[in-house]
Design brief:
The chain has 16 helices and two strands. The protein has 279 residues and is an all-alpha fold. A hairpin with a 6-residue loop joins strand 1 and strand 2 (100-102).
């Protein structure tokens, strides 16, 4: 009987890249990118609990991504079905442009998907996760399945790094820093509604601010330009070195702290099956 290691499995680039503890920076970076699409952001602003519970919202997003990446196929399918139902209820009109949006629009879903995978790949590689150029293409191709699970037709989804960059080039005329995007960026960099327990813990608040700043500085130059930040080579290098240092520090923590529960459960399934992961 075949073992269900999910849609990717222990030898995938997805497992290697998305299990890394530095990827909470990638999640914040993805939010900065998402905010550049006015219709995608309009849906988040109206329907998301992010401003009321930023930590909880990111945790729930991380749980979904972890389930798809590391869970069984049935777990991933159930999680994706819930997301599709939620998206079906998201609809409205962007208050700045007057353009209507729908949460199930494949083009909006594609923007969110591409921002996420670009963020995980970029942050992971800059932080020192060993991913070759060929493996980067493999990761983008693997993630086509994640896109399909939320309802994006395969024919729309980039399958390599070059196709991903072509997608960003194509969609850039639709992007802008709206008033809502500026407000979101300020909120992410210093959220005023962090849970009380976090406000009282200066190191935690400092960690959030450092991660958000790193996420912002790791954005592509065109995205930083839209936000009004010029490209500064020294700052770019500093962000890379800081990410590497953050990853080294995170990897020194116990596994129970640095690994997501879904990843630990996935490793247990692999061990019970007697599967030997390629080195």
């Amino acid at each position: 009987m075949s073992q269900d290691f999910g849609y990717f499995g222990p030898d995938s680039v997805t497992w290697r890249l998305q299990s890394d503890p530095v990827q909470w920076v990638g999640g914040i970076r993805a939010l900065f990118l998402l905010s550049l699409h006015p219709l995608a952001l309009a849906g988040v602003e109206r329907y998301s609990t992010f401003r009321d519970d930023p930590v909880g919202r990111l945790q729930r997003t991380g749980q979904y991504l972890g389930t798809v990446a590391f869970g069984t196929k049935s777990d991933a399918q159930r999680a994706a079905a819930r997301v599709r139902r939620l998206h079906g209820n998201v609809r409205g009109i962007d208050p700045e442009s007057g353009v209507a949006y729908h949460g199930s629009d494949p083009e909006l879903l594609l923007w969110v998907h591409c921002g996420a995978i670009d963020s995980f790949l970029t942050v992971g590689r800059r932080a020192g996760v060993p991913v070759t150029a060929g493996e980067a293409d493999d990761y983008i191709a693997e993630q086509v399945r994640s896109a399909e699970l939320v309802g994006i037709p395969r024919k729309l989804v980039p399958m390599s790094v070059s196709e991903l960059q072509e997608y960003f080039d194509r969609v850039r005329p639709d992007l802008r820093v709206s008033a809502a995007a500026k407000s979101t960026a300020r909120f992410v960099l210093l959220p005023p509604k962090l849970p009380t327990i976090l406000k009282l813990r200066a190191p935690t608040r400092m960690a959030w601010g450092s991660a958000a700043a790193l996420a912002f500085m790791s954005l592509p130059s065109w995205a930083r330009h839209l936000y009004g930040l010029p490209y500064i080579p020294a700052a770019d290098l500093g962000a890379t070195l800081t990410l590497r240092g953050m990853r080294l520090a995170a990897n020194a923590l116990p596994l129970s702290v640095r690994e997501a529960p879904q990843f630990r459960q996935a490793k247990e399934r692999v061990a019970k099956a007697g599967f030997h992961q390629r080195s």
